[in-house]
Specification:
The protein has 134 residues and is an alpha/beta fold. The protein is built from six helices and five strands, in the order αβαβαβαβαβα. Helix content is 37%, strand content 13%. Strands 1-5-4-2-3 form a five-stranded parallel sheet. InterPro entries: Rhodanese-like_dom, Rhodanese-like_dom_sf.
């Protein structure tokens, strides 16, 4: 029997945007100058190798996000326990809407989505650095 998908990705993203706050690339560039801001890149590592990254970002594979945020998880990363502002991004700002939504629902705050994602950052003239394969 074929699956019937009742809620598509567009709807999930629309609903997610209603629950989160977003920043533009220009706003993110200003915020990135602060010591209390962490830009979180949730793209696949192959995207980083191919496209580069925003300098100083903290890379989190999307599939591990909830596990890295939760202090009760054996995979918890101390970065998420710091008193910081977190800006999540992906390639175009859609996956990161969902990541920002779940991070906020888990209690991480303040959290923002980078509108337009990495593509919007590059389009706005934001700095990019190469990422070498490990």
């Amino acid at each position: 029997m074929a699956q019937t998908i009742s809620v598509g990705i567009k709807q999930l993203i629309e609903e997610g945007r209603k629950e989160i706050q977003e920043v533009t690339a220009d706003e993110a560039m200003e915020l990135a100058k602060r010591d209390d801001v962490v830009i979180v890149d949730i793209r696949d590592v192959r995207e980083l190798w191919r496209e580069g990254r925003i300098p100083g970002t903290f890379h989190v594979p999307r599939g591990m996000l909830e596990f890295w945020i939760d202090p009760a998880s054996p995979y918890h990363k101390p970065k998420f326990a710091e008193d910081k502002t977190f800006i999540f991004h992906c390639a175009s700002g859609m996956r990161s809407v969902l990541a920002t939504q779940v991070a906020a629902r888990m209690g991480l705050k303040p959290v923002y989505n980078l509108k337009g994602g990495f593509g919007g950052w590059k389009e706005a003239g934001g700095p990019v650095e190469a990422v070498e394969k490990k």
